[in-house]
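Can anyone check this?
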Amino acid sequence: MANIIIVLILVALVGYGIYSYVHHLTHGGGCCGEREPAEKKVRVADRNRSHYPYHAVLKIDGMVCANCARRVENAINRMDGYWAEADVAGARANVHCKEKPDLGQLKEAVRAGGYTVLSAECAEDARHAG
């Protein structure tokens, strides 16, 4: 009798674990937007890196998961002439720019997305430096 009870408890725990995992995948989860679906990725139309001769690196505070990184990327990718790739582990966003970046505009976009830019620097991409 005790074995049956233990098996039923284990089945219930495994069932709950599967339910939680599927719910997390379909409805988002984690630190930002636990009850909201995951935000769809905003893709830039021009994905040819040679069209982006400038580069900016933003150190970002508060980015702790993949949803956070996607929100930062989306905030910047919505801007014309910018293409962002956020790195959660490095707490930064690498931004490819068609023209010399406006750091104030980039900081404001990230702030509007709910994150803080700790530092920002820009440089011409070494591949295009003359």
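Reply from J.R.: I decoded it. The first strand starts at residue 54 and ends at 61.
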